[in-house]
Design a protein that fits this description.
Helix content of chain A: 55-70%
Structural class of chain A: mainly alpha
Strand content of chain A: under 5%
Number of strands of chain A: 0
Oligomer: homodimer
Number of helices of chain A: 6
Distance between the termini of chain A: 45 Å
Order of helices and strands of chain A: HHHHHH
Largest sheet of chain A: none
DNA sequence: CTACCCGCTGTATCATGGTACGGAGTCAAT
DNA sequence: ATTGACTCCGTACCATGATACAGCGGGTAG
């Protein structure tokens, strides 16, 4: 396993060098020690794995703080699968709520697009009128 | 129409005083002139209407920059309903794309929740494994 | 030998949408 | 007369997730 410099690790994880350093500052990963022999730090092994984990969690909608929690679980001695499942369930609920909010917004837009003549002066624009009178249903922004 | 101070306008529009000043700094609304007679500025009439408009646009998912565009249309001499409709259609597309991305995320979470035993040690956790190997489909975050 | 890329470090900046605070002035009620 | 509520103004700060840049040093390629 050839030593991975930060640049190679970044490319391998599909993120930027600065992003890795940002994660270090945020405590998501530990900065590898400088080799006693000098030279660049080694981002291979567990560190690269953690970087990939962060990328994967991000794809699933986890925030960095939540991802940090999952990473902490990974290292907790008594952590169980149930803990992870609870996090995933909570996230699923959040995502579902966002979907519902956005769906309401989309439907409102559809309704307005249907009601708007689409030509002529602004005075006849159903969309602007609706925004002004603000009788649209609220969404989880 | 009794003169609306900034505080009353804020309550009336359901936002904070600081938020109104923030919108002024951002150019979304013009700061009303100080009355020659002294005393507080008057946020009634068109200004309050604009504040409500901003709140309505926000509920429909428009960003402040986009809302500024809509407000500019409201004042443009030659603006037509078609311009507004184009913005709304574009926003609908964005919202739809976000919904699809989130739906993929939700489905991934469902799949993982189904595959995960939900008890036992982390070594058996399908969720963590999946995050690490990152074979989940990407989402529009 | 020099250019150039890379790593290392610290700090600054960006976008987004606000929120908070300090200090001064004004106004009405007690 | 003093308190309290409010405005006004400027500036600073928050979270989130990065991104950029300056300045130093080492190794390699031409």
């Amino acid at each position: 396993m050839a030593a991975l410099t930060i640049g190679k690790a970044a490319r391998s994880a599909g993120i930027g060098v600065e992003t890795i350093r940002f994660y270090e500052r945020k405590g998501l990963i530990r900065q590898p020690p400088r080799p006693t022999a000098g030279g660049p730090r080694d981002y291979g092994g567990g560190t690269l794995q953690r970087l990939r984990f962060i990328a994967g969690a991000k794809r699933l909608g986890f925030s960095l703080a939540e991802t940090a929690g999952l990473l902490a679980l990974l290292e907790a001695p008594g952590a169980s699968c149930r803990d992870v499942q609870a996090q995933a369930k909570a996230k699923r609920g959040e995502v579902q709520a966002k979907i519902e909010g956005l769906t309401r917004i989309r439907d409102s837009l559809d309704r307005l697009l249907g009601a708007c003549p689409g030509k002529g002066s602004l005075a006849d624009c159903a969309i602007l009128e609706a925004i002004e009178s603000a009788e649209n249903s609220g969404g989880t922004s």
